[in-house]
Amino acid sequence: MNKGIMGKILVVDLDTSAIREETIPDEVYRSVMSGIGLAAWLLYRRIPAGADPLGPDNVLAFMSGLLTGSGAWFSGRWMAAAKSPLTGGWGDANCGGTLSPAIKRCGYDGILFTGISKKPVYLSIAGGTAELRDASHLWGLDAVEAEERLAAELKDPGVRIATIGPAGENLSLIAGISNDRGRYAGRSGLGAVMGSKRLKAIALSGKAKIDVNDSAAIKELNKKFMTWLNSGAGLRKIMSGKVLSFMARVLRISPVGMAQNGELVKIAQSRYGTISTNVISSEGGDSPVKNWKGSGFRDFPIATHADRLNPQRIVDHEVKKYHCYNCPLGCGGILNVKEAGLAETHKPEYETCCAFGALQLVNDLNAIFRINDFCNRAGFDTIGAGNTVAFAMECYERGILTKKETGGLDLSWGNSEAVLPLLELMAKRQGIGDLLADGVKKAAERIGKGSEEFAIHAGGQDLPMHDSRYDPGFAVSYSLEPTPGRHTNHGYQWLEMFALHRIFKKLPRTASFFRIGEKYKIHADRNRLMAAGSNYMQFVNAAGVCLFGVQMGGRLRLPAYVNAATGWGLGPEEYLEIGERIQNIRQAFNLKHGLVPRRDFALPGRATGKPPLDAGPMKGVTLNIQELADGFLDKMGWDRETGAPTADTLTRLGLDNIAEELFTRDLRKKKS
Questions:
Q1: Which of 145, 166, 657, 666 has the greatest CB tally within 10 Å of its CB?
Q2: By the 8 A CB rule, do 3 and 211 touch?
Q3: Which pLDDT score, from 0 to 100, does residue 666 have?
Q4: 91 Cβ partners below 8 Å, 6+ apart?
Q5: Would you say the pTM of this structure is higher than 0.85?
Q6: 603, 592, 607, 569: which is closest to 644 by C-alpha?
Q7: What is the CATH number of the domain that holds 57?
């Protein structure tokens, strides 16, 4: 049997409470690895076309990565996957914490749930025995309370737990899945899928051995990486919140951009985590403002906002660093914020700070601390929830929503005091909260009155806090990836940090310096890198490796790690092809379920600069989304008109059965 994998999955039928093991053929792992690759291979086959995402035919998967348990750095990511209730197509969410190794130590590469339980349950795996147990006493508890209650009941220090909160129980389509008291698989609405199955939690405790082919080689790779990670003492000494603010203001006015090469990233991430970008993104135009109106310096003092949300102000409350499993970086943190009434809470991420900050014109840091903690407990994806509140604020500004509809809440821009009460209503599906609980697309459909124009989403998924007008690569990623509206796939900034030329010798390198206007021009080399980056991230997610690890300038040599774990001896390009195969299965899933990416995932005008802004960092920018998309699709081997994989591409990747099914159905006719 292959090394580095467990070779089997657990399938739990919630209709009948039957639990069975299934062995996965070795050739499947060689084709798609595990993690997101195995999830795509399994779910494409098991979820019937037209399945209701909240119905019994949907399959919810919890997957560990191939490198998890191997000793490789950054290999603690787990993935949830299912048909997304937000988009109606492929849905996945990626998370850190400590759950990923627990899945493998129970003896499995993944756990699949089918059907719907008649009552709330949780899955317990302990001592080699898997069973469904009553969770009625946990139903209604927030995600943190449920995890703590379950851990106290089980009295097993080795147990690892994932839960949903009230938002997932009440089928909010912007609900996620929590582990480690607030680390989230937030995107794609998979918390609602878990809630629809009346599955409150999973509790995993196992001692299965995870064999690798060459542990000495993995240790040597780790050692070389740590030598680089610990270097740069001079830069570490001067790195501070003030320095970040200064750099941000210089970059904002500079006509020349500088590629991110990993050196600054490693220091900023290890000291501050993702909030290290609070200042740079706000100043430079990466952070969308005022529900993507982006009026910046005229209506919202970005410099003041960046100062108030400076990462140093946040880490001043940090009482200990938080590391996900086998992570040498430790970008997370546990805070004690007395001013906000929080004795222990997770440090907010950049996405949260922006979604409940600049996007809503909120400058109150203590309010953001409280909002972040509430979302972690209620079970909300903070990107989806933040976008939805900003959308509601614009509806309020335009008179589409009034105090009568909001139950007396004043949803004026910047009024942070109204945000928590609104989120509470959304989690409970009460009053105006019921209308908003499913994200901006559904809210706009229910409200009407022209609100669809400023509902900022791609295919139903609320857009992240990286402005596609600032980075055109995100415009491509948001609108053409199998999971639309996601910033963790690829963008121009990501390509700089990936430094793919260091791993894949035939790929071009990104420029170290460039004129700002150059990023709006179409380049063949950049199209090649975008396609390679898209496929590369599927390889990364199949390995169960963190995005931040591969943003270290190509210094985390994943092909070498996977070869050391498995003994496969494949070349880097062969692993990139595995990523391409996974990506095509994911996109084929969308076609199978009746979606046409080029049509159904199209971005709203604001996200592409239509009309262009007349103030702020992105003043006058309008993207040529047609040419951007065409160039990417050509390099992916996907149809220009539909965004669907072509029969030739699927056949080249050994996906003949999928090609035959899709082109027999002739789903491309749905493009009109």
A1: 166
A2: yes
A3: 54
A4: 53, 81, 82, 83, 84, 85, 187, 188, 189, 190, 193, 483
A5: yes
A6: 592
A7: 3.60.9.10
